[in-house]
Design goal:
Layout: E1 2-5, H1 15-18, E2 22-25, E3 32-41, E4 44-46, E5 56-59, E6 63-69, E7 72-77, E8 81-86, H2 101-109, E9 119-125, E10 129-135, E11 140-144, E12 149-163, H3 166-172, E13 180-182, H4 183-207, H5 219-229, H6 231-238, E14 240-252, H7 254-269, H8 272-290, H9 297-329, E15 349-350, E16 357-358
Parallel strand pairs: 2-5
Antiparallel strand pairs: 1-8, 2-3, 3-4, 3-9, 3-13, 5-8, 6-7, 6-9, 10-12, 11-12, 12-14, 15-16
Helix pairs in contact: 4-5, 5-6, 8-9
């Protein structure tokens, strides 16, 4: 029992005129994983599940067709074209682009060889299934070496999958007696597993030293991590692989955002020009607000004077640093001639007590009388 490829000449013209029955897949949407074949005869489509001997099965590109009897696999093809059901032939097993390991799976699920009773055809979509949405329900911890802190993030985006072993998918993932299976029909279970793997992959990126702000642009790396994590539960068991993961946005919890802002501001303030500009702006704002102080402008300005005195060292450091940088970058110039101490003029005298230069009879600084 199996299928044989139809000769090209035998399918020319209307198929319904050439064969008693033609089996076509139901329409596949962009997120359809599997659909049952529908039977068309001279009277139109029929609801019968029985595939007659000699029927023609039409397989399209990117489809994997499985012929089953009582739930057991009789034959399959991964090649597009027209195939005749021949219950007297041996299984043909048209591999298409799939590896020889597919035949190992076939040996586990193949039909044992009794007379056919209830044959059906199923078509499995082997295209990449894109645009499956995800979002982390809880914040995921991420240690960022740049910030030297444990951050908590939420990630949102889409991912894509591909059925890489249709026999495993049919046997272990498809609901029994289902006529059509879309991603939404089985997504709840798979999404939970996906999110667990996503957290493991994000933690691995953290261990590898990736900055949290780079995660959204590392879709290839993230996809590889995801595929490794899900290899046993998805690939080896169900024949599904994660192809790509696209992070649409990453958001931080409130405490993580405060920490990031504080660290970023601190990094900016290490630049002397930014630091001095920040302080000058703060002083100008303080002067503007002083006039509206309820305790009076005098008290406000007094307080500002104390604050500015305390900040003097900060400003001086910034100014000195800027001056040093300007001096290093400016061309060398001749130093101005140093001016000597002030010379005493006729009639002037130096106070013997404080050294102040005076012109009268008493020191203008300490009041000492001019020596005789």
């Amino acid at each position: 029992m199996g299928i044989v490829r139809a000769a090209l000449g035998s399918v020319a013209g209307a198929l319904s005129d050439q064969f008693q029955e033609v089996v076509e897949p139901f329409n596949m949407g962009p997120q359809t994983l599997m659909t049952q074949g529908r039977i068309k005869n001279k009277n139109g489509f029929t609801s019968s599940d029985l595939i007659s001997n000699g029927s023609c099965i039409h397989v399209y590109d990117n489809q994997f067709m499985i012929l089953v009897d009582g739930g057991k696999i009789i034959d399959y093809t991964a090649e597009p074209g027209y195939f005749i059901v021949d219950n007297s032939s041996m299984p043909s097993l048209f591999q298409g682009q799939f590896k020889e390991s597919l035949k190992d799976v076939w040996e586990r699920f193949k039909f044992d060889g009794s007379s056919p009773q209830s044959q059906k055809v199923f078509f499995i979509n082997t295209q990449e299934i894109k645009g499956i949405k995800f979002g982390t329900r809880n914040a995921v911890n991420y240690f960022d070496n740049f910030y030297n802190a444990e951050l908590f993030v939420r990630a949102f985006g889409t991912y894509s999958i591909q059925i890489t072993n249709p026999l495993l998918f049919y046997a272990n993932a498809c609901p029994r007696n289902a006529v059509k299976v879309d991603v939404a029909d089985i997504n709840e279970q798979y999404l939970n597993e996906f999110l667990e793997a996503l957290q493991a992959a994000i933690n691995q990126m953290s261990a590898d030293g990736e900055r949290i702000s780079y995660v959204a642009s590392k879709s290839t790396t993230l996809s590889k991590y995801m595929a490794d994590v899900l290899d046993e539960s998805w690939t080896a068991l169900r024949g599904i692989e994660v192809i790509s993961v696209g992070i649409g946005s990453i958001s931080y919890d409130e405490e993580s955002q405060k920490l990031i802002n504080m660290r970023n501001q601190g990094a900016m303030m290490q630049d002397p020009s930014i630091r001095e500009g920040y302080v000058q702006s703060a002083v100008a704002q303080g002067l503007q607000n002083a006039g509206s102080n309820t305790a009076g402008a005098g008290a406000a300005f007094m307080g500002m004077g104390m604050g500015m005195s305390a900040a003097g060292g900060f400003m001086g450091t910034a100014s000195a640093t800027n001056a040093a940088q300007m001096q290093q970058s400016a061309p060398a110039a001749e130093a101005p001639a140093a001016s000597g101490p002030r010379q005493k003029q006729p009639g002037e005298w130096f106070c013997p007590e404080c050294g102040t230069l005076n012109g009268g009879n008493f020191c203008m600084n300490c009041g000492t009388k001019k020596p005789e």
